Amino acid sequence: MEAELANPDPAAGCGCAYPEWVDTGTVARSNRIMAQLAVTAEQFPRWRRELGQLPRHMVAEVGGRRVGIVHGDTRSLAGWDLAAERMAHPAHREHMARELYRTGVTVLASSHTCRPVAMALPSPDGTGMVINNGAAGMPNFRERREGLLTRIATWPPTAVPSLYGGRCGPLYGDAVAIPYDDQAFRRAFVRAWPPGSPAHLSYWARLTGQTGDTLSDATGPGFELSPAVAAVTGAKHG
Fold it and tell me: Residue 48 and residue 2: Cα distance in Å, rounded?
């Protein structure tokens, strides 16, 4: 959406390139949200220019390994190759393993599809991983009020607890909670998007922890819940 706000194209709608499993109501509401945001964005031309100058993808080096950072996937800013729905299929996981080889990255990190997923895959360095945090600024799991940050480092998380994580060679990949003032955020949200508005219809259930996914739903092969989280949720660790 930031890319569309920087360079408006009315034909592109919200620019999310929703796949076939997303219902038409969600798509229509997203386009209406985008139209309202575009009106607001017109008042801030400098910020729009800065958004337009941001890179579409990045490659970082962590522990001597290449880490690809994308919004959608390796081929599109709005791609859905790292969606949980697609990563559930073995054939698609094989495709993404080939993408790790093609791009030469050990870890591929995404943030686009609103449903987190993380799993180990073969990579040029042996074992690699793909990790999608779903959304940084909204709740991702049922009955939890927090955003989600992807942490990639050469040492395990200690000061900031992991919700779930995995390891490939020298790298640790973990999902870390982003706590915020839930009540204050919801009050601000309703002021901007009151009941009946497109954003309220699309996101209120999510903001109130009524999503369908649990932490264990996001953990694919090679990833597991942290012991503390497993103890609280009653899920099996390991």
Answer: 8
Residue 202: name the closest of 70, 45, 27 by CA: 27
What are the tens digits of pLDDT across the range 15-68?
Answer: 678 888 889 998 999 999 998 998 999 999 999 999 889 898 999 999 999 999
Give 201's contacts (C-beta < 8 A, 6+ positions apart): 29
pTM of this structure:
0.89
Q: What share of the chain is helix, strand, coil (3-state, %, to 5)?
A: 35, 25, 40
CB 75 within 8 A of CB 105: no
Yes or no: say if 152 and 69 are a contact pair by the CB < 8 Å rule: no
The Cα 61–Cα 206 span in angstroms is 34
Is residue 40 within a helix (H) or strand (E), and if so which, with residue range?
helix 24-41
